[in-house]
Structures are given as structure tokens and as C-alpha cells.
């Protein structure tokens, strides 16, 4: 019996008081908007820091982190509640195996999500990677094909390992801009988001540093090289995504067993072909038959 255990969110008390205050404010705002549950889905390739990010948000070691890709094959949902508010974070195994997207892993994730509503998707990758490739695009495409393109309206790109010194004399900002633009381009391609669709609703990119060696400010809060307190910043971006007017994604039977949710229009294709057959091909055939009939006896008969 896999009964869902919702524990008190005690990890929040591990944060320094300044961070706690900010988090309580953000959650209080959500409650004002009548949002009392938040379900966050964390996805990405293996080893990019998905599980570490889950632990950082919760403030405790809730899921296993491994330096060498030996994650369990199943998703794990961590649920914590605080003052009538429930936070669910779903950690998933990496989607890539042997250079390809592992469809079986994806299928297990989809089934795990049955009857759950995804409020926010965290698409995790590393800041300190220098190129994107077709595999990244395939991972994004796999997510898009599973949950529909709308999931990106509730999507954040999260970049871990954010405490870095950029190479080649680039400034931190320049490096961040280049890396996030390269990744966003891949996300747009993989999700088939057109340029005109993204105006005013672009996908936010958020930086994260999960390492215990993350720098801190005078209030003992973890900060990025540019001074941003990243935990409240991440949670704020998550709550903003919930309040942006889009809808969460309900993972129902139709979504996981039906056709690719982005291809619904294509279901009409057989109908259109049938229509053409009966009303165009049949007509022409009839005309030809009539012609033949009118010819009467063959000339050589
Ligand atoms: P997952 O496979 O995506 O769940 O990745 P994990 O969370 O298991 O992390 C893989 C490895 O990267 C572990 O050794 C983590 O300690 C390390 N790691 C994760 N996030 C960060 C980060 O932000 N900074 C640094 N320095 N290491 C990280
Ligand atoms: Mg993991």
C-alpha cells in the first residue's frame, strides 16, 4: 500500500530567518489567491541536479542525490504541509539513457502522474554547460508530447551550478544570457512554440546553487555571484507562474493513453481523406463510367 504521507514542512525552519520570512510571504500570497496546494514536477536529464534542487526547496534531504547516475527508476513525490498549505514536489529519474530519450522512463512518469494536476514544471539543466544539442531538444519534445505544449506556460528553466566563474573573460551576466538564450531556443524548438506565441509570456530562467559551499550574505542566506538570494527568488518565480493566468495540467487517462495532445487536429485527417474520396474521387469515377456507357459499343466491336 503506497499511502500518501503528508508531513509537516519542518524543513522551512532550517532556512535563515530572512529566507523564512520571504517564503511565508510568498505562500501567504498564494493562500490569498485561494491556492492551497502546489504540485511541482521536476524533469530533465540525469545528473543535472534535479534531486538536489528538490531538497534545496524543501530544506531537508528528502530525496537521494547521487554524483553517479544511479537514480531509482521511479518518480518520488515529496509532500509537506504548513499552515494549511501543501507543497508537493515530484522528483523524476533522468529521461536520457544511452544517448536517447528513454520512453519507458517517460511512461512510468506519466502513469505516476495519473489524476494529478501539475501546477509548475521545473525543467532542470546546468548553468556550467557550454553547448546544447539535439538530445536536449528531444528531451523537451518528449515532455511536450506527453503533457501538451501548454505545460510550458507553467514551465521554468532552472539552471544549477550557478556559482561559477565564466570562461573566456565573459562577465557573469553575459555568460548567463548566452547560456539561457541557447537553452530557451532549444526549448522553443522542442516545444514547437512559435515566436508570436511567446510575446509577453516567455519562459523564465532561474539560477540555483545547491552546493553546501554556496556563498551567503550577511543574513546567512544563500546567494548567487550577483547577490540574488536564490531560494526566495526561485519560489517567487514559481508562485508567479501559478498566477500568470494559465491553467495547471491535469494528467488524466486521455492525456497518458490518448494520442499526442498536440496532434488532436490531425485526427481530422482521415475524415478529410474520406470526404475527398466520396465527394471527389467517386464523382470523377462516375463521370468516367457515364462516358464509357455513352460511348456505346466499342468501335472495334
Ligand atoms: P539528478 O540526477 O538530476 O537528480 O542530480 P543530483 O541532484 O543527484 O545531482 C548530481 C550531482 O551534482 C550530485 O553530486 C550533486 O551533489 C551535484 N549537484 C547538484 N546540483 C548542484 C549545484 O547546484 N552545484 C554543485 N556544485 N553541485 C550540484
Ligand atoms: Mg535524481
TrEMBL record:
It comes from the Eukaryota. GO terms for molecular function: GTP binding; hydrolase activity; identical protein binding. Mg(2+) binds at residues 51, 69. Its EC number is 3.6.5.-. It is found in: Plastid, Chloroplast outer membrane. Belongs to the TRAFAC class TrmE-Era-EngA-EngB-Septin-like GTPase superfamily. AIG1/Toc34/Toc159-like paraseptin GTPase family. TOC34 subfamily. GTPase involved in protein precursor import into chloroplasts. Seems to recognize chloroplast-destined precursor proteins and regulate their presentation to the translocation channel through GTP hydrolysis. This is Translocase of chloroplast. It comes from Ilex paraguariensis.
